Design the sequence.
């Protein structure tokens, strides 16, 4: 069986403006939905932060298209040794959980699929494409707690993620669940 979508992997050195043009419409549509309810100002903030994201060492993105229209996306990068990723943990975790060296953890920053293409395995395909060939020890991501993101949490649990704590990534942000999954050897 062939999939109705095409996945394209992009690295940080590729045209960041064109990549943002593909990702931004998916971001805007998905994050306009509840519980996020983001609007034009939020999308503009996302666009303003794009050069920093795409410029991160080891950056990778995967775009899913149907008939040349983006219908899903994901992107991430390894956590740098000096990352602030773990600073928002509600309860302090042991150093063996939070220590980073630039090669230990790959962070999934966003993973989004348009509503019309959900429940068909596309999220998993994007996720797997993002992590294919990675040599980090583990992958980390943040997800909203129940009931806000029940489908996403269920997917992540079925993909082998476990919760390591609650995390507020920036001041005034909602509290997210910090998830981790060990990457398979030889991946």
Sequence:
């Amino acid at each position: 069986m062939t999939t109705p979508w095409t996945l394209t992997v992009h690295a940080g050195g590729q045209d960041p403006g064109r990549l943002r043009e593909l990702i931004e419409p998916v971001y805007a549509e998905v994050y306009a939905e509840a519980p996020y309810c983001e609007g034009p100002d939020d999308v503009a903030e996302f666009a303003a932060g794009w050069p920093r994201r795409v410029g991160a060492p080891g950056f990778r993105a995967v775009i899913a298209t149907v008939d040349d229209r983006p219908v899903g996306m994901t992107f991430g990068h390894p956590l740098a040794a000096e990352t602030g990723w773990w600073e928002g943990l509600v309860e302090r975790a042991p150093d063996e959980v939070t220590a980073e060296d630039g090669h230990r953890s790959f962070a999934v920053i966003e993973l989004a699929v348009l509503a019309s293409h959900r429940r068909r395995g596309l999220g998993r395909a994007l996720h797997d494409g993002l992590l294919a060939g990675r040599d980090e020890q583990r992958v980390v991501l943040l997800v909203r707690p129940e009931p806000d993101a029940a489908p996403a949490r269920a997917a992540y649990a079925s993909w082998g993620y476990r919760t390591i704590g609650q995390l507020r990534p920036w001041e005034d942000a909602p509290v997210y669940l910090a998830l981790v999954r060990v990457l398979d050897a030889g991946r």
Summary: Residues 16-32 form the longest helix (17 residues). The chain has five helices and seven strands. Residues 168 and 175 are 5 Å apart (CA to CA). The mean pLDDT is 92.
